[in-house]
């Protein structure tokens, strides 16, 4: 009985009414991921004693409700937080048969004015008629017309003329004034009739149509409980879709420096339905939508399949040997020595501020890198790309020349960049500039390159290269049931620069897949030979004006009864 009584007393002391409190908030920080963005809002609240619902309106329709986080100050307890969609009440369309009150009032005023104007017009017309009658009487008088008696005296005639002159001028002046007033009155009447006609057809003239329903309003509703009146601040964060950023790079070099300047930029876009006005941006390399669950291996049960049959041991051994051979082949290829040259047309990138990178702090996290930019940006919800400068770095580089005379007798200047691992870069397009001139574009992909990157900066005319087939050493003969062909080439290189250079020359010999075809290298002139790929490479230092020759010679022996394609050799 005591427990029941205590429960009733406590129940009576707790207020159950919920007071709604719609508060203004501001987006002050946005963490932009490669896909999605985390919005941080702040605002202040006031709550009375009891249960209060704090409403934050106009949040993004792309909000992810599972990511909503609330932090608050003040003497209260957060009971609940949720996303609510408010559908505004549709606005009723005007009744096509009902004219608005203000229009009805104006119509009544116009009708009254036109009614009064009828009597004003009648009054004017009567005055005009009186004056015209007076004019006719004077003009028809015998004395004025000269039809009076012969013995009329001269003084009497003079008085008649003076009377006519004075009276007619007065009448004509009055008629002119009344005529002007009548014209003005008619114009006013016409304007009133036109306005009245428009007002009587108000609905048709204004094309009144039913008002469309307004878009739904997304709200965050936070339910709090307070023992007394309290105030405080709210810090709200949540994830939204339809936003992200793409990395872009500028690589700038010149002949005087042994380094390349890398400019790391971001194309930030968003179409969340809410503009980001004057906010601080953080760019994160994390993608919250990627799979975060580690893979697990389960038992692999192997059994015979009677429909397929089984492989004999010799076939299985052959597959195993082939697999191991392929694996060794991959291990022997030195990817760091492969040089890449691209000339893809790209749009020159735009940087918001030349010194904006000075305001960026790089924060190394456990699974990602976040760039905190201490500048304010405004990014509209229009899905347009906004350029944000992240940082700049000086990359150690070494300039050298590169040529593949078998494919192109041109010589290309190459910048070999090292120590790329410390940049924490993402895959993205890089625009290349050399000595202030646009060279082209390439792709930077840390997943596909080692610590070294080779950039082609263009073709030079100060080094001449020639590749010649040595006909006197190139021959063909039949040895038993096989044909033996010998090929010999000479590569001549001359440095026409005034300074010493480093030059990489590449050529190749064929690689066979059939054991019946035999390749023998007779001369490679100290070139490095990769037996797996057949790549020949010379790393040469040439003095100013120096000329060097390199010779390649090899034989191909194959079955005379089987055709072989040697066109490319």
Summarize the structure.
It contains six helices and 26 strands. It has 569 residues and is of the alpha+beta class.
Global morphology: elongated
The figure for the number of domains is 4
**Total beta strand runs:** 26
- Rg, rounded, reads 48 Å
Binned strand content: 35-45%
Can you tell me about this structure?
The protein has 569 residues and is an alpha+beta fold. It folds into 4 domains: 13-90 and 214-240; 101-205; 243-289 and 305-460, no CATH class; 464-559, Immunoglobulin-like (Sandwich). 22% of the residues lie in helices and 41% in strands. It has 6 helices and 26 strands. It has helices spanning 2-13, 101-140, 142-145, 154-200, 202-205, 313-332; strands at residues 18-22, 25-32, 37-47, 50-56, 63-72, 77-86, 217-226, 230-240, 243-253, 259-270, 276-284, 360-364, 369-379, 386-404, 408-417, 428-434, 437-444, 453-460, 463-469, 475-479, 482-495, 501-508, 518-523, 528-529, 535-542, 547-559. Strands 9, 10, 14, 15, 16, 17, 18, 22, 24 and 25 form a 10-stranded mixed beta sheet that branches. A 7-stranded mixed beta sheet has the order 5-8-3-2-11-13-12, with no helix packed on it. Helix 2 packs antiparallel against helix 4. The longest helix has 47 residues, at 154-200. It is elongated. It starts with a helix and ends in a 10-residue tail after the last strand. Mean pLDDT is 80; it is low at 1-17, 307-320 and 322-354.
């Amino acid at each position: 009985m005591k427990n029941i009584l205590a429960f009733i007393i406590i129940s009576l002391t707790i207020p159950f009414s919920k007071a709604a409190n719609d508060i203004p908030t501001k987006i002050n920080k946005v963490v932009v991921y490669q896909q999605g963005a985390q919005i941080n809002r702040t605002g202040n609240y006031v709550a009375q004693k009891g249960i209060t619902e704090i409403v934050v309106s106009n949040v993004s329709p792309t909000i992810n409700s599972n990511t909503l986080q609330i932090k608050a100050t003040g003497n209260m307890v957060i009971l609940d937080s949720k996303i609510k969609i408010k559908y505004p009440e549709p606005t009723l369309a005007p009744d096509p048969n009902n004219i608005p009150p203000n229009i009805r009032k104006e119509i009544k005023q116009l009708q009254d004015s036109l009614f009064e104007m009828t009597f004003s017009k009648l009054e004017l017309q009567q005055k005009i008629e009186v004056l015209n009658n007076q004019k006719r009487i004077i003009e028809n008088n015998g004395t004025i017309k000269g039809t009076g008696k012969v013995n009329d005296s001269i003084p009497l005639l003079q008085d008649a003329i003076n009377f006519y002159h004075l009276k007619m001028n007065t009448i004509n002046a009055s008629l002119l004034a009344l005529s002007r007033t009548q014209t003005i009155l008619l114009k006013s009447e016409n304007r009133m009739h036109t306005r009245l006609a428009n007002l009587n057809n108000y609905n048709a003239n204004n094309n009144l149509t039913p008002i469309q329903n307004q878009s739904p309003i997304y709200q965050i509703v936070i339910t709090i409980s307070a023992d007394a009146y309290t105030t405080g601040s709210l810090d709200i964060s949540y994830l939204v879709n339809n936003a992200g950023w793409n990395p872009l790079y500028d690589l700038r070099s010149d002949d005087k420096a042994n380094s390349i300047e890398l400019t790391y930029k971001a194309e930030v876009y968003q179409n969340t339905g809410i503009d980001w006005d004057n906010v601080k941006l953080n760019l994160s390399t994390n993608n919250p939508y990627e799979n975060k669950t580690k893979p697990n291996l389960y038992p692999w049960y192997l059994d015979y399949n009677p429909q397929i049959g089984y492989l004999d041991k010799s076939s299985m051994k052959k597959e195993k040997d082939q697999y191991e051979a392929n694996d060794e082949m991959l291990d022997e290829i030195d990817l760091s020595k492969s040089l890449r040259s691209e000339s893809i047309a790209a749009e020159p990138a735009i940087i918001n501020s030349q010194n904006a990178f000075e305001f960026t702090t790089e924060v190394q996290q456990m699974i990602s890198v976040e760039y905190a930019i201490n500048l304010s940006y405004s990014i509209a919800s229009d899905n347009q790309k906004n350029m944000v400068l992240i940082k700049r770095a000086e990359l150690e580089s070494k300039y050298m020349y590169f040529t593949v005379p078998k494919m192109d007798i041109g010589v290309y200047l190459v910048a070999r960049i090292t120590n790329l691992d410390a940049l924490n870069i993402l895959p993205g397009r890089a625009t290349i500039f050399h000595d202030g001139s646009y060279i082209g574009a390439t792709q930077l992909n840390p997943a596909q390159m080692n610590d070294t990157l080779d950039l082609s900066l263009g073709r030079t005319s100060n080094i001449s290269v020639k590749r010649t087939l040595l006909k006197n050493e190139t021959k063909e003969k039949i040895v038993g049931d096989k044909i033996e062909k010998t090929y010999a080439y000479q590569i001549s290189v001359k440095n026409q620069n005034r300074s010493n250079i480093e030059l990489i020359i590449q050529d190749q010999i064929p690689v066979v897949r059939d054991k019946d075809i035999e390749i023998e290298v007779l001369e490679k002139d100290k070139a490095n030979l990769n037996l797996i790929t057949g790549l020949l490479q010379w790393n040469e230092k040439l003095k100013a004006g120096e000329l060097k020759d390199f010779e390649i010679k090899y034989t191909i022996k194959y079955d005379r009864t089987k055709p072989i394609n040697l066109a490319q050799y």
